[in-house]
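Table 4 source record.
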Amino acid sequence: MISGKKIFLIGAVSLSVIAVFFEVLLRAEQFSYRPPYFEIDVPFIHTKDVQASNIFQFDYYLFWKYRPHAGGVVNSSGFLGREFAEKINAKIRLVTLGGSVAAGYKLSRHENYCAQLQKICDQTFGEGAVEVINLACPGYSSFQAERLFRVVVKKYHPDIAIIHFGENDRLKALCPDKELTFVRLTKTLLIRFITENSRVAQYLSEKSSPAHQIRWKIRVSPADYQHNVNLISEEARRNNVKLLFVKSCLRAELRNFTPTPDYVPPEPFINLYDSISDYGGDNANEIFFDWAHLKQPAHARLARGMFNKLSDLGYWSELVAVGTTGEIIAGK
């Protein structure tokens, strides 16, 4: 009588032989299938252009982040722009958090609004008075912003933070960002590895999960977006960080001169900068590369608008404009 253990082993060997047979057959037929969710299973990091750039790396906490020293544009801290120390050397340290719009998609690191804002501050208050640090990363949602902000506050101790999110929150996903736990990410990466390297797995995926049957969700719901904004605000208050939230402007919203209300920070307790007000009535082709990303002149206008808004809020109260001698004078 054959024992249960032997039956199991015989079955396992038989299945392995069958799998190898079909793997060889499918490869001989040059069968290949890329599941439609592969670009979105772990948002952004697996898109072909991102992989080709080799400047990002996987991260369980933020899902992805810049690779330090990568591409000649990332500093040793893993952010865009010039090097900066954990210790604050300027009178005011300002950080900007955002996605690819804030990072300056398709622009050099000297053309995005963070770099432009640094230039305005240097011209107004003199070099060394204000330090502007770009912590934006393409593809980030407000969920990642809230996680990153907690790290930034404790490690880099900013005085002012500009928070610019909303574009990526509304993108489709297999599951919301908040559900991408360690276990789920590990499972997803394992499935991806097997499917990328096995024609049998690709065949089964094509038959079991056609594109029209995928139930897409959004990365961050409007309610979760508001929750993330509230958490950032609470963390800022606890650490005495002054905030400026940016109402993002999409190409479609520019035509209507109306922001999407679901992804606008609540007004009663948050200082807001309405980027749409800067572009109302303008030709969208002069402002945008595509559905959301801004051209260099638009970044320059945003930087000037943000600087003026920060002035109106009194965030530069510790500084006054440089005199004829170039001296920086502290004020109350």
